[in-house]
Fold this sequence. Notes:
Chain A is built from 33 helices and 2 strands. Chain A is an all-alpha fold. Helices cover 23% and strands 36% of the residues of chain B. The interface between A and B is large, with 31 and 42 residues.
Amino acid sequence: MANASENVEERTRFSGIRRRIHEIGLISQDPILMIALIFSAIFLIIFIFYPIFRTILRGFVSDTGQTDFTQFARYFDGTFLNGITNILKDAGLVLQETEKYGRTYRLVLKDTIVMGVLSATFGTILGFIFAYATVRCNIPGKKFVHLLALVPTVSPPFAVAIAMIQLFGRNGLITKTILGIRFSAGMNDIYGMDGLVIVQTLTFFPVAYLMLKSMMERLDASMEEAAETLGASRFYLFRTVTFPLLIPGIAASFMLLFVEALADLGNPQFISGNVTVLSSQIYMSVIGEYNYQKASALSFVLLIPTLIVYVFQRYYITRRSYISVTGKPTVGKVYEKNKTIRVVFGIMVYLVCILILLVYLTVIASSFVKGWGIDFTPTLSNWTKMFGRGLESILDTTFLSLYATPFAALLGMVIAFLVVRKKFSGKEILDFGSNLGGAVPGTIVGMGFILTFNLNNPGLAILLLVIGAWFYVTCVTREKRKRLMILIPGVILGLTLSVFNDGGFLWGENGFFRPEMQAEGAAPFGIGLSGVYYLVGSLFILIGLFMYGTNQSKKIGKGSFWIGVYLLMNQIILMISKPLRIYGRTQTVRWWRALCTQTADYIEVPFSLPTFFLGVILIFLTALLVYEYRGKFETGLKMIFLTLSIAILFTGDQMKMNGTAYIILFAFIVRSLPASVRSGIAALQQIDGSIEEASNILGGDSQYTFRKVTLPLILPAFMTGLIFSFTRHMTSLSAIIFLVSAKWQIVTASIMSGWEQDGISYAATYSSVIIFIVLIFIGLMGTVTRKILKIDTNIDLNTGI
Amino acid sequence: MYLVIDNVVKVFPPRGGAKEVRALDGINIEINKGELVTMLGPSGCGKTTTLRMVAGFEFPTSGNIILDGNVINEVPTHKRDMSMVFQSYAIFPHLNVYENIAYGLNVQKMSKAEQKKRINEVLDMVDLIGYETRAPNQLSGGQQQRVALARALVMEPKVLLMDEPLSNLDTKLREQMRFEIRQLQRQLGFTCLYVTHDQLEAMVLSDKVVVMNQGLIEHIGKPREIYRYPASRFVADFIGRANFLEGQITERHGDDLVIATHGSTLTISDPHYHDFAVGETVDIVIRPEMVKVRTDEGKFQGRIKQAAYLGESIEYFIDLNGLQLTAHETDPTRLDMIPEDTSVKISFMEDCLHILKK
């Protein structure tokens, strides 16, 4: 019964910090767990937090690098808030004209908010009707209605706009051909605010529907029965019990819809007519004016409502919510007893379903006719055109989407695992950060990516070096002296080795001392990027052969050998891809030509990771190889591996990724991460944590447990993650529109920039292709899940929303 | 000493709005090799936290956990060479019975032939031969329990940890499994730390029982000791049931103590109480079955407030000078209920009474 209270140190200012460091220390005993944690953190910092931060910052900086509040001052100029503008002007913080832009800026903002509020209101109402009809009214064909309501979530972002124009536009099938309306100037047509709101409502209501549906399913039926036994009439009951319980869900879906409608770029570009919304304004200021400051500043304005909504949702709605999100749907069902409501809701739902069906049929049909609205002769000309000129962008889009998909889903599962199962400080940040990339308007991610990855960033590279090297030495040995003997020579030699490139971080193309050397043209010395790859790759192979051959450690031998081979492949692959590309260019059959040249591009991609990323991965991989090694040349070997990794980290283009496939791939992953994280979290919360503990105590470490127990159990969630990621990649627009290049084209971006010349039928053709590819993928994954993995479950598409 | 829990404190830091929780406030437990020790206590007393710290799922805020002479505080779970049977069994749902049991052996990369031999042995022990290819969801609760046990035993762990392994079984099966676990432990001689909130389970199984309450150890002892000589009011009340009467020691003759209470005296004859002094105020612990309720003779005067027929006994709630006393009449020849509201005479089996310092 000893009371040991006095033995416990008093809580001091530092005890919290010490505890946190201790927690990290405990995690670091398991290198793979630590790597998962550091990797996720690095990913969030470099690809989410930093780009968003860059975008926000850029809005306050003029092209010449001075602090400049012009873009924000413009909003106030000429209003009662003129004072703010004047204060800023007096402080010398406004460097450009403000007066003549003020009106436009405010008009755009007003239209944007009106559009957002109206779309969110109608979308939520429609979503509620759908949810109530499917959950409570027991309408016939519920499954069909459910599937149809999901279609807008998996279709390209402007499909609805295209179809609405084809149906109700000036040459629309219904307006002109059937009703015979002839539009003259001044007549209210589909273009403009009204059309935009209709389109946005139709596009985004499924989000509200899914949220409210799952909420209604979890509403405990016995609560309503209790109210009924207490003598409440149906309406009184709805007003006092059902509705109040649903309010958090309704508020949440309203806000989510508001944000999504605001962030959307596709629909407004097609259908907004004379009305301009913020997202189009940002798009135009990059594409038309090349004004990055303006675009960044406006992105920040667009970000504000998103952040408010996010905070509101996290700290208000989740606390007010009485319905648990993780709970299973209740067994008891209550159906609406009032026949009128049932019939009215049913009819409304069916009408909207018919409209959705009509929308997608129109998109597909209009790709097969000559001139929609004028000449309905069936033709394949759009498709032949697309399989000629458009094939490259379709192949690119599909390839990049597919390539990013497994990584996005896997990273999502890893983050979900860390968030649900592990204890460490900063978990909330990990959770928040992984959601942030998908929650903010895509434009901000896109802007941030161009601003961050269009040049080398020595600061970030050094941050990576510090984190990586610190991890490496703490992981591979416990002795202080050895740590120093690995760290210091390793870093110095690594940096020196990178200089062999073309001057590396010192005099290289993007090096520190470059400006002074500019006059001399080419770097004074160096073996070039390929030289470094050859050198580092061969060293890895040699070490591998030595370790394997002399029987020091087979594991290190094999690992090192294959790392070396991978590095050499960066160059070797060119021996295949270059001839293939040259051969392709000589071909005259368009599809064959495109296939050859594009394949040449694609096989290079896996071996040309951006060097900063490759460097970090090499640090992790080599640490895993050697951390248990205690044999001959221990310190030297560990030091050399660190050297080689750092050499790669600082070689070549490092973080400069514009125009490459990787800038798009990373943007894809950032955008689709939240969906897979959320489906992973939902799945993990259903699984008893002691199952993983059982694996632990039977001797399995974290990675063994994750591979053998966790992943098999959350496989359905993983498959959902794959489907969601792929769909999001294929249909993303705002995030990648600024990132495409001549070499790497994305279908949605091509449509956006080309539909005015090529005509709307051509855009419809592209859209149909995206829809087909997505549907094929979903079907394929469904089959794989059921037939090959033998998982007897419907992939739950709700979890990712 | 094989496994030592040395002055361990566990404080859960405040997190996510929850306040700081002091789950363990300095506990010491010593376990010999081959011993089965149970930790017994109400929910929230810290017994599961202790077990999880031994397993390595939680880490002590201060103090040490020592296994076979080595401090293992920060050794990760998978290197501790223990195994555990979980309350929820935690059977891997995607593996069949054989694969479940082989899981830990696979981690060790043991050869398939050796695995088969070991697994067949344990399957035989837990009586699951013929169930190798069954999926977990095709097993009954009791069978799942056996799989979990087999999976833990096949590892031949240094320490076997059990976290309320029987609490999800129905009563009959639980009684049977108690004896089976006891028998297996005797036969194989493994060291075992066992958590339960069921005192009968603790009594049947243990070499030693650790009674815990609110993060502190109240009593460590053999099953008989903690029932017969509980160290505190809490233990007396938690292990079985107890009435407490306040009294004062008036005389001592060798091992005999005379205690005055409620207007009469009791004589307790037991060498156990040599450190009690004359004049000291004590709590007298009276188990319900030590209370004799008679209509004719007895030392104290009481009144029956409530009587209930329980089959094997009769339960009386008796008013004794405003104090409520519970009595169990277990004598089969006396199972005629005395009606409620009857005045009765009460006496105690004085040789069986226990006293506690105030």
